[in-house]
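Table S5 (text form). Sequence records supplied for joint modeling of the two-component complex.
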Amino acid sequence: MTAVLPGPTSSGALLYARSRALPHALAAAGVTAVLAAGAARLPGVRAEPDRVLFVVVLWALGAASVIGASLHAECAELDGTAARRWWRWRLAHLLGLTGSAACAAAVALPTPALAVVLALACTGVTAAAAALLGARVCWLPAVVVAGVAGVASGGDAGALRAWPAGPGGWSVALALFAAGGALHVVRGARPEGPRGG
Amino acid sequence: MTTIRLTGLTVRHRKAVALDGVDLALGTGVHGLLGPNGAGKTSLIRVLATVAEPAAGRVEILGEDVAGHRGRVAVRRRLGYLPQEFGHYPRFTVRDFVAYVAWLKELPAARTPAAVERAVARVGLADRIDARIGTLSGGMVRRVGLAQAIVNEPDLLLLDEPTAGLDPEQRVEFRGLLRELGAHATVIVSTHLVEDVAAACTEVTLLDAGRVAHHGTPGGLAALGADPDAPGENPVERGYAAALRAHRAAPAAGREAVR
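The corresponding structure-token record, covering 456 residues in total, follows.
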């Protein structure tokens, strides 16, 4: 048995964060917010509420996708043998990233209430999709729902812009986030591969 | 002492039956799990690793019934598991990855650095402990997998195709490690390589179509292949083939008797 050079061993929390690429996810969420803030302030966009709305929707989908991608576990099979209680880590993970994205939006985007409501709703749908379909494709349902909603609105974006101020706007978004988040916290992302489906 | 007791274990994947009412009791030592593809070896390993749930039957590991949450968690702390594909984190160093699994097993933080270094040294990767896993060869990655499986000094070690990707010299060293681990723990090795079983195992279980086709010692399996004209390169291979033939030829009632 060869002697091992002693070295620093990272803490469990740090290893968990690195295993889920959380530093990358935080950076990506920040870059997404900066890009969206820049786009919303372009001369051809800021005077057009519909274009601002389009930018905010794209940002919310992007942020939710970044969060959803971070739910993927490369070692799902080994994670499944953990004695540790996963639900606490999944909850902290989801709340931490969603909170960070929401704060960035509130600071950077011109319609913070709408941005936060959309981010909560999209992240809820994405978290549920991660639990049911797997983290690699979890961005898809939110994108499809947004696309269908856009087509169904027939170009009238007024209702969506008024969503946060309307009755039940925040309630619906919070309910989606709570339901999707709870599903993920309890079940975790669906394992992928031959045994996971 | 019996560390694993399976009673009527049935596992289904959708409509297919992977394990069909298996009864088995295993104790300390190295147990080889042999069988053709689709025999149920990986399904059995995954149930013992507590990552798959049986459709029916009772699974008792280290004195705990794993159907309950408390029992499952207690077993997981004392369990080591090397899946066929463990899906490492390429940016992790060997030290990071083994420490991550130690954290999963709730090994006390104060004991983790020494446990990680010991596990890595035991698989012969001491000089690569701070190398990124993504830079290692396939055989080395497999040894990292073994290191993570033994970091908590498990009482039950489950290894699914552990020698895949190892060169002959590494396999010889690995068998030595198996014998060392099997002196104090229950080690279950699922493999297609009967020479690994002959060289390192104290008992062998042969599965076929989700049932136990043979259970005994490697010597007993080799004795079934005493006929040198039968197909196979060595007595254990011939015994493997003979046991499978006998199991498949036996009527259902006879199979029950074998179980």
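Note: The CA atoms of residues 163 and 169 of chain A lie 5 Å apart.
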